[in-house]
Structures are given as C-alpha cells and as structure tokens.
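hiii so um. not sure if this is the right channel but i have a protein structure encoded as tokens and i wanna go backwards to a sequence. like what aa goes where. can anyone help
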C-alpha cells in the first residue's frame, strides 16, 4: 500500500546514494519538485534514467548528483542544448558523467520489459544506425522461429522511479490523464516509487477515457505537491512555462549563474513554492 507522506519523507525513505533513478513524464507531468528535494537532500552517485532528459536532469547533473545517465535524447525542448549536461561530458565539470545512449523505441521497450520482469527487450531497431558501435548494451538476437535478426537491450529496472500525476485518492491509487509516456511502465519496473500529485481526493472519478490508474500496491509513496511539475505542464491544471525554458538557456550556460540559481531557488526553496504556479482547480485539494 502506498504511504501518503511529505516530499521530504518520500525522498529520504526511497532515494539512496548510488541508486538508479528514473524520473519520467513526457512533455508534461515532469516531477521537478521531487528533483529539487533530491538536490536539497544532497543525494550522490545517482545513475539517471530518462527517455528525454531535460531541465531537471540538467540541474541534477550540474550539482554533481549524477555519476551517469541512460537516455535516448537530451536537450532543452524547443530551445537548444543542456549546458550542464554538455559541460559534464565535454569538461568533466563538476564531475565526469558516464552516458549510455539508446533510441526512443529501445528505451520504451526496455521499460516495458522491466515492468514485465523480463531480462531484456527485443525490437526491430538500430537498422542502419551506428549506436551499436559505441554502446555495448545493444546486442542482436536471432528469432528461433523466423531467423530474423533483432536488436536486444537490457530491461530497465530502476531502484526508484518518480513521476508526477494529477490526482491520488486517500488509499494511494493514482490517476494520470493526458500524455502518459512511459510513466506506468517506469513505476511498475521499479523496486520503489514516488508519485507527486496535484490533488488528493476522496474519489478518482470522473476519469477521462484515456486515463491510467496506478493501484496503490504498485506505489511506495504518494505526496501532495500542487504545481510540482512546473515548468512543464500538468494537463487540466496549468500550462507549460515556455518563458522558463528559454530563460534556462542563459541561466545554465554559465557555471556561476547556474550555481547561484540553484542556491536561491532549490537549496533555499521548499516544495510549497511550486503551488504559486497552480490555478484555482487545485486550491481545493485536501
């Protein structure tokens, strides 16, 4: 059964130094508030996993929390590079970063394989591509029925997965609406999981036709953090802050400006700060 607790308690109980950690959410519902709490609790030696690492992983890399990252695309969406990520890879600042690059299809299949408790994922992929030449975790396997040669990658089984969602009920069941990406698979594949939510309600209904419900037994901790996905958006709650993504390019480009921003807005911040980005709908949350 999921435990409803504070964000500080959830990170302290579930995220440990050296963990592999997946923080998923595609275009929206990216768990920024949880990422900030990881920084405040000074977690180290994390191996980051995310299909599309963007600003939250740029921040974790920039403070030296990460030893490596498995990903399929990295950048500031619609703006350009992740400067803290580039600095770590190109200049080893603030520390060297191990990278393992895959395609989107391979990552999605690897999460699904992890959720199914399988050792590897198999797909038609990497045909005509060079990633297999630089990534030893991309193998080939021959179908025993047809003789077709297919790509194989290790399943993704994080120590902990963290996602943001719209609502949870008081038993810890979680509702995700809108684009879900691989959030469901990331939670089911993980040993432990944290879900931050916009609202905690008595009942999850009425869900939309494309809603995903994660049952309480699949989640370790549920945390009420209104606005916890900002500057990404939460479908039905608040829009994406395009202005922040643009501003981040300048903030992160320079080591000193990045460090100053982290000190003021993350180290000196708290989860409740995210609530100012929320509209009237979540103001009624318990």
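sure thing!! here u go:
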């Amino acid at each position: 059964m999921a435990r409803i607790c504070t964000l500080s308690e959830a990170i302290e109980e579930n995220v440990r130094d050296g963990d592999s950690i997946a923080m998923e959410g595609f275009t929206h519902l990216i768990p920024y508030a949880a990422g900030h709490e990881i920084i405040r609790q000074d977690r180290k030696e994390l191996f980051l996993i995310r299909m599309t690492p963007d600003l939250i992983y740029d921040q974790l890399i920039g403070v030296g929390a990460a030893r490596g990252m498995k990903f399929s695309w990295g950048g500031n969406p619609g703006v350009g590079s992740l400067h803290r990520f580039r600095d770590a890879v190109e200049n080893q600042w603030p520390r060297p970063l191990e990278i393992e690059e895959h395609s989107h299809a391979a990552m999605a299949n690897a999460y699904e394989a992890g959720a199914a408790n399988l050792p590897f994922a198999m797909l038609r992929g990497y045909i005509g591509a060079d990633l297999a030449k630089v990534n030893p975790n991309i193998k080939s396997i021959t179908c025993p029925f047809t003789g077709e040669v297919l790509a194989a990658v290790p399943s993704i089984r994080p120590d902990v997965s963290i996602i943001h969602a719209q609502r949870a009920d008081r038993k810890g069941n979680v509702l995700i609406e809108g684009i879900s990406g691989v959030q469901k698979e990331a939670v089911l594949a993980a040993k432990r999981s944290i879900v931050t939510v916009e609202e905690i309600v008595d009942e999850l209904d009425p869900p939309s036709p494309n809603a995903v419900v994660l049952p309480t037994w699949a989640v370790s901790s549920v945390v009420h953090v209104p606005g916890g996905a900002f500057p990404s958006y939460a479908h039905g709650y608040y829009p994406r802050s395009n202005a922040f993504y643009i501003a981040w390019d300048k903030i992160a480009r320079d080591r000193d400006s990045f460090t100053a921003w982290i000190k003021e807005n993350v180290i000196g911040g708290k989860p409740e700060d995210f609530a100012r980005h929320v509209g009237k709908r979540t103001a009624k949350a318990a």
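oh and The first strand starts at residue 3 and ends at 4.
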